[in-house]
Structure formats: C-alpha cells, structure tokens
Amino acid sequence: MFRTVSNFSLSLKTTDDVVVMTPRGYVDGLGAGQMEEASEAVLGKGAKKLIVNFSDTQFINSVGVSVLTTVVHRTQQSSGMLCFTNMKRVHREVFDLMGLTKHVKVFNEEDDAILYLNRTKKN
Amino acid sequence: MPINALHEEGFIGRRDALQDLHRWALDAEKGSGQSIVLAGSPGIGKTELLKQFFTHLFWKQDAIAPFYYSVSSAILSVPLFARDYLTRFLCQRLAFENKEESLLYLEGITVRELAAWARDRGAAWAGELLDRFQRCADDPIDMLRVALHAPLQSALFTGKPVAVLIDDFHKLARLHHQGAADPSLIALFESALSAKKAPHLITGNAAELQALSLPGVTWVPLRPLIFGDAERLFSAVLQARGTAAAGVPPALLDLLGGNPLYLRCVAGAVKTDRVSGEEDFWSAYVQEVASGGIYHYYAAALKTLFAEGGERRQALEALYGIYESEGAPLEDRKLKGPDAGKLSPALARALLLSGFVRGEFGGYRAPDDRVMREFISRLYEREIGVKPSRDVRQQAPEQRFSPQVTGNVFELALPLMPQAELVVARSLEQIGRNLQVPEDVIGQMQMAVIEACINAIEHNRGGERRLFVTISAEGERLEVSVESPGRDFLQAETGEPFVGTALREGGPRGQGVKLMKRFTDTLRYEKTGRGTRVVLGKRLTRTSEPRKENVPNRE
C-alpha cells in the first residue's frame, strides 16, 4: 500500500501581537484542518489578529476552502480579525465564489495587512 | 429462438439488469405491468439479456409465463407473421406449463398439430384461440389481431400473466399486406402493448423504435458493462480458449467501451498460441475491425440499410465526413458534415435511423462509440480511399493506438488514492506550458480538474480503482476529461453530479460543480463503460488577462 507524502506544511510566526500563518503546498481538507487546529490554538491563547499568507500555496480545493470557513467563524467568535494576503488570482476567485472574502480582509502583501492590524485596536 | 442463450456463467455483468427485469415482470402478476423498450447501442447485449431473461423465467419460477419472439425479416407478410407469432407463443406457453423443453424446439408446426397438442394437455383455452384464428383466415388483419392478443387472452383464461419479449421489434415497421409495406400496421400493437397482464419488453434499433412512436411504453437504457465486468468478460473468453488472461491493456478495454460484442470478438481473435505482450491484443482488435466479426457485423448492417452500391458509397462518404469533423465546434461540424446540399433527405434519415450518426441541433455528430468510428474509417479507406485491407492490418498497432501521446493528447491512468489530483494538476501545468497555453487558463483549469478528480475519488463505487485522465490542447481548445468507476454520482434530475456529503461536520460541500463551471467554458458528463466521465473544456482564444500572481484588491 502506498502512503501519500504530505504536500502541505504550515509555518507560524508572531510579529508583535499579529500571528501570521503561511500554508505551503496543497490546501486540501487535511491541510486546512492543520490550519484550523493552529488557529484554534493561537486564538485559545488570546491572539486576536491573524494573517494567512498564501504566497506559498500552490493549490487549493473546495474541501480545503470549506474547512477554512471554520477558521473564519472561530476567529469571528473570538472577536478576532483575520486577513488573507498574497493570494494567487485564481485562489482569490475561489474564495470570492465561495463567499469567504466577505468575512476577511484581503491584502496584496503581508506587510500591508500587518500595518492595517497594527493600526486597528481590537480587544 | 431463446434456447441458444449463453450459459449462465458466460453471462457476465448483467445480474442487476436481470433482477430489474424480474421485478418488472412481477408487476404483471399484480396486474400493473407496463410495456418497456430496452434501449442500448448495437452489441450492448439486449438480445442476450432477453434470452437470459426468458431462460430465467422459464426455469426458475412458475408465476409468469415467458414468451420470446425474434422478428425475422423473412416473415413480415401479415398472415405469415400472425401464424408464426401465434404458434410460437402457444408452443412456449404450453411448454412452460410442464417445463417441456422439447416444445421450445418445434419449428414449422401447423395450426392443426398445435390444436392436437393443446387438446392432449387439456389446454382448452389454447384450442379456443386457435379456433378463433382459423375462423378469420380470410382476413389477415384479424388474424394479426388474434395473434397479438393471444398472450393477454391466455393470461385472462389461465390467470397466469405473460411477459412478452420481442427482439428486433423495429423490423415490424416493414410488415406488409397485399404486397406493400404498411407502417400503419404497427398501430395494431398498441392495445397489446397496453395489456397489464401481458406487458411487452421490446428491443431493437433504438432510432427506428423511436421513429415508431410507440405510445405508453417506458424506455429503459441498457448500459455498457462497467470496466471490471468488461475485464472479466474478456478474461473469461480468453480462458475458455485456454489462454491466461494477463496483460490485457486497459486502454484497449477502455476503447471497447464495455460493449460485450466487441469484447467477445476481440478476445476471440487474440492468437492464443502466442500472447507475448500488449501488441498481440491490439493486433486482435485491428483484425476484428478490419476484417473480423466486428467488421462483418457493421458491414452487414450497412448493407441492409443501403443495399445499392452507389447509395452505400454515398452514405460512407457522409459518415466519414461527419466522423472526421468530430471535435470541431458544432458550427464547423455542420459545414463539414453532410449538409442538406449534399445529402438527400432519404439518405439523411436512413443514416440517423442506422445509429451510425446522431442528430444534434440540426446537424449531425458521430456516436461516442469509437469502435464504430474506427470501422467506418477502415471501410472508407478500403472502399473509397482504395486502401487494401492488408495495409490496415499491417499498420503497427502500437503506433495507431499508443495510449501515451496522440498529437497533443496526453493520457494518464492514476491509482484512486488521496491527492492523485495533484499529479493531474502538475501534469496539466507542464503540458500547458509546453503547448504555450496562457498561465491564467492553466491555473483555472487546474482548479476545475482538481475538483473533478477529488469528486471522482470520493464517489468511487468499486470496480477498477483507477482514474483516467486525458488532456488535449488542439486548435483553440483545451480539454481535460476525468473518468472513474463512480456510476452513481450523476444525478439525472439536476445534472449536478456532485451533491456532496459533508466531509466534516459543519463543512459545506457540494461546491465542486460550482467551481468547475466557474473555471471552464464547457462542462459535460458522460456515462462510459468504466463509469462516469467529466469533460472540462476551455477556449484558448478568449481574452485571457495575463496572470498576475499577487494582485488581490487592496483594502
């Protein structure tokens, strides 16, 4: 029986009070599941400002996007703010089509999102 | 007649169909039977299914009497047909009562002899039917009425319903009376077809049956064998000939499309003394299409439809034109196909009725059956292109049927395992780049293909655990097809195959089709021998903005 090599990895960094998640590779149900767990953890520790930087995301699918909606909902429930940055054009279209971008702030670059979040006080 | 049905073990992949038919027959017992047309492409196994069903009803139960009749082109004068129909029915009906197989074999029995048989068996009802038939010997139309209603009458007399199974029913359009064919005679079947205690199951050429406009009958499709059953059938034929079945190329089975006739012919043509590799199987296929059983099957059909040589040649040229223009946009196909200026209405109608072409929005298109198309090409080369059949056979099969690359067509076969879609997406990227497909088009197509693949994997229903993907970039069109064994995910009512089940609690699914539609210009679903094929198409000439990697709108 073959085993599938993971095509996904996730890195996290914290700059001031902003947590940046950078998913790499293929954001499918499993990959997005890892993102969900990571966001639960940081929100659980009191973080309120999250950025997902998609610059290294090669592919996404509808299952992954549907799991990401739970990340959005959890962030909203925690009164947090969520930004998406560095999305490929086609991925942006997918998020638009599935209604996700109505609930997040979208920026071209991670720095722009950080500037926005630092300007915004949220407790 | 039904007695030459295949042995039960050789009848592969139709157990469900047989059970469905049994359930259909049980409705007659309840007095709510309804006549049906069993429809399917040539060679798909309609006749064999009818024979198997007859055998099943005859030997394995007592509640419903079966009657099998195969319409013969030689018996189409009304009095001859009426006599033949009635006597065969009575023979089979009497045989059923005591499982007298010998009665099934009787040929050319006279009405007087049959009356004696009925008397000996105490079947007064049969004697009465025969008397009635004899009394109207001067009126062939009345004879026909008596014959056609005999199954219902027997059901009313005996209380035992009859399942009437008629093969090649379309030939009845050529019933003739007083020397002239009279298509209106088919109307005499209408009341017989509506009998709830004697429902009819009819088969024949689908296009011709449609032209008969039979009222109140339901059409039931007989689908090709699924891939796994096709493989079993092919192997069974080889094994019966003493050859190990290993090494049958999946691409060949795919080409044969789950058609039992093709599978039997090609497996039967494999040289059993020297099967050394895939090319031996391909050689058998080439031989079959060029001069074997498949060739003769279709050649006979063409000859029946177009008996005169000049007409046949004209039909062949028209067919070849249509087939060659396949793949072009519909408007171009119409131009290249046999437009009204070239083709007489009679010939156009005959072509449509033959099943060699399909009508489509006022034009014509080739059927999906690639073997049929191959036959027409070979016949065209032989008869009009004046290419000797020897040359056809001598072409290296691996050159003609290479599953890897044909022009700009790439084929992949992948195991049905998680993230197989990534292999397809990455292949698409590389192929697209090589063929200078705009990057934004590649990206959008990747999204659509990923969705098609994950749904195919998710909805897999057993059978062969592989995903077959074809990527073609020809002219101004990029097309990707994804084929899998999933048979149930096509929802006929909605046309939306991927009505998703939640992968995770609270996670909305069923967005696959939405994404596929969003990122393609055309999306269609096809039933195939393996299961289901999703075909995603995208025009390459439309205005495609250059890809900008990181340009979402700025807040």
Q: Would you spell out the secondary-structure blueprint of this structure?
A:
The complex is a heterodimer of chains A (123) and B (555).
Chain A: E1 8-15, E2 18-27, H1 29-44, E3 49-53, E4 57-60, H2 62-77, E5 81-85, H3 89-97, E6 105-107, H4 110-119
Parallel strand pairs in A: 2-3, 2-4, 3-5, 5-6
Antiparallel strand pairs in A: 1-2
Helix pairs in contact in A: 1-2
Chain B: H1 15-29, E1 36-39, H2 46-60, E2 65-70, H3 78-98, H4 101-104, H5 111-120, H6 124-135, H7 140-158, E3 162-167, E4 176-177, E5 180-181, H8 189-193, E6 200-202, H9 206-212, E7 218-221, H10 227-240, H11 250-256, H12 260-269, H13 278-291, H14 293-305, H15 309-324, H16 330-336, H17 345-354, E8 358-360, E9 363-365, H18 370-383, H19 389-394, H20 397-400, E10 405-406, E11 409-415, H21 420-434, H22 439-458, E12 466-474, E13 477-484, H23 512-519, E14 522-527, E15 532-539
Parallel strand pairs in B: 1-6, 1-7, 2-3, 3-6
Antiparallel strand pairs in B: 4-5, 8-9, 10-11, 11-12, 12-13, 13-15, 14-15
Can you give a write-up of this model?
The complex is a heterodimer of chains A (123) and B (555). Chain A has 123 residues and is an alpha/beta fold. Chain A contains four helices and six strands. In chain A, strands 1, 2, 3, 4, 5 and 6 form a six-stranded mixed sheet that branches. In chain A, a hairpin with a 2-residue loop joins strand 1 (8-15) and strand 2. In chain A, helix 1 packs parallel to helix 2 (62-77). The longest helix of chain A is centred in the first third of the chain and has 16 residues, at 29-44. In chain A, 45% of the residues are buried. Chain B has 555 residues and is an alpha/beta fold. Chain B is built from 23 helices and 15 strands. Chain B has helices spanning 15-29, 46-60, 78-98, 101-104, 111-120, 124-135, 140-158, 189-193, 206-212, 227-240, 250-256, 260-269, 278-291, 293-305, 309-324, 330-336, 345-354, 370-383, 389-394, 397-400, 420-434, 439-458, 512-519; strands at 36-39, 65-70, 162-167, 176-177, 180-181, 200-202, 218-221, 358-360, 363-365, 405-406, 409-415, 466-474, 477-484, 522-527, 532-539. In chain B, the strands form four sheets. Chain B has a six-stranded antiparallel sheet, covered by helices on one side. In chain B, strands 2-3-6-1-7 form a five-stranded parallel sheet, with helices on both faces. A two-stranded antiparallel ribbon of chain B has the order 4-5. In chain B, helix 6 (124-135) runs antiparallel to helix 7 and helix 13 packs parallel to helix 14 (293-305). The longest helix of chain B is centred in the N-terminal third of the chain and has 21 residues, at 78-98. The chains are: A alpha/beta (123), B alpha/beta (555).
